Amino acid sequence: VSRTLKAGIAGSGALMVAGFALAMLRPESMAADQWQLAWLASQPLSALVAHPSFYLTAGILLLMFTPILRVLMTLITFAIERDWRYVLISAAVLLILSISIVLAALD
Questions:
Q1: Structure pTM?
Q2: Long-range CB contacts (< 8 A, 24+ apart) of 99-107?
Q3: Higher local confidence (pLDDT), 7 or 34
Q4: Which of 15, 36, 69, 102 qualifies as a cystine partner to 59, CB 3.0-4.6 A?
Q5: What are phi and psi of 82, to 5 degrees?
């Protein structure tokens, strides 16, 4: 479980460092309208690979979803150990996180 958090933080940091490095090399690519997810989603993947906001946004999203992945890994670990009380608690936490994400997306 701790490896999940470490990997998420390391991956997020690496993506953000790559994004900042690309931004330093191509400052003209950092226009404000290119930071919206709708703009990123409308671009072909080949164009995004060389774009700093792709890496910065991916790093932020990975950092946001790391705790959710940790709860999922905890749930799986408790299920393997057949500790059903903690499986239920982990499932409840995962459900609450999922509901909050859906409600935030609808807002």
A1: 0.72
A2: 101/68
A3: 7
A4: 15
A5: 60, 40
